[in-house]
Specification:
Elements lengths: L4 E3 L4 E3 L5 E4 L2 E4 H23 L4 H25 L2 H4 L16 H19 L3 H26 L13 E4 L10 H5 L2 E3 L2 E6 L2 H19 L8 H18 L15 H35 L2
Antiparallel strand pairs: 1-2, 3-4, 5-7, 6-7
Helix pairs in contact: 1-2, 1-5, 2-4, 4-5, 5-7, 5-8, 7-8, 8-9
InterPro entries: Lgt
EC number: 2.5.1.145
GO molecular function: phosphatidylglycerol-prolipoprotein diacylglyceryl transferase activity
Length: 295
């Protein structure tokens, strides 16, 4: 297997990009290191935001532990559910996340359910919690996508655009290689290469831009929950486009439609309607939210 990754039109050529690093004889996947780093930074962002808004940062450490555990489980189950053919003959492989296979939508859904349950038990405001963790979640998505870079996955179809990424064909899953890619295979020094959209990079940059915008807007929000809705709307908008480029889409069984792209479309429409409605009725909404928490 060859381990180089290039962005030829940008003049970037990385000779050796491994999937793991050896620490005291143990192989640790870069994917895991990136996810772990994203989680730690997420805790820092959430607790800092809680402190800024007069909440108890300790409560976010407690909720965060459950959120992380159930978030990873949810992300894995979502991926496995829509990739069942890959796991049905080897169920133990479901437990192997070192090679990737975490779907962010599953993680977000699990995190949302965790927040709702925790808020109910602790008599806290779920919308306020959602706003507090919005930047942390977005940071996790921005950084987490770089795990796909090291695993050579979650890329798009053939392109010769400015950001085109060149990969050795023997370093990627054959199921992710399309006929169009094969028609444009390049032979360099006896090695076959494909050239693709680096969709992991597109999504990471999109999340970065969205993170900056929400960070600047957070002090100007009109009601609790607005920041989280803007995050979901903005992320869904980018994901709806980026998902359409990918060659490893998770498909709805029996229908064959890309489930993550459909979910992104639904997310954009739903949160868009809510944002418009609550923008006009945020005063009444805020009163109802306070009554629900007894404050």
């Amino acid at each position: 297997m060859h381990y180089d990754i290039s962005f030829p039109h940008l003049g970037i050529h990385l000779e050796h990009v491994g999937k793991t690093i050896s620490v005291f004889g143990f192989e640790i996947a870069y994917y895991g290191i990136i996810i772990g780093t994203a989680i730690l930074l997420g805790f820092v962002i959430a607790t800092s935001e809680a402190k800024r808004t007069g909440q108890d940062p300790e409560s976010y450490l407690d909720m965060g532990m459950f959120g992380v555990v159930f978030g990873i489980i949810g992300a894995r189950l979502y991926y496995v559910l829509f990739s069942w053919d890959m796991y049905k003959d080897n169920l133990l492989e479901i437990l192997n996340i070192r090679e990737g296979g975490l779907a962010i939508y599953g993680g977000v859904i699990a995190a949302v359910l965790t927040v709702i349950i925790a808020a109910k038990i602790k008599h806290l405001s779920a919308p306020q919690i959602f706003d507090t963790i919005a930047l942390a979640l977005l940071n996790g998505q921005m950084l987490g996508r770089w795990g796909n870079f090291f695993n050579r996955e979650a890329f798009g179809g053939y392109t010769d655009s400015l950001f085109a990424m060149r990969l050795p064909i023997d370093a990627v899953r054959s199921s992710d290689v399309t006929e169009q890619m094969r028609a444009h295979i390049q032979m360099i020094d006896g090695v076959e290469y494909i050239q693709v959209h680096p969709t992991f990079l597109y999504e990471s940059l999109w999340c970065c831009a969205l993170l900056i915008l929400l960070f600047a807007y957070r002090k100007h929000k009109k009601y609790e929950g607005e920041l989280f809705l803007l995050y979901m709307f903005g992320y869904g908008l980018g994901r709806a486009w980026i998902e359409g480029l990918r060659t490893d889409q998770l498909l709805l069984p029996g229908i064959g439609l890309p489930v993550s792209q459909l979910l992104a479309d639904v997310l954009v429409v739903t949160t868009g309607v809510l944002l418009v409605y609550l923008r006009k009725n945020h005063s009444r909404y805020s009163m109802l939210a306070k009554k629900s928490t007894g404050k």
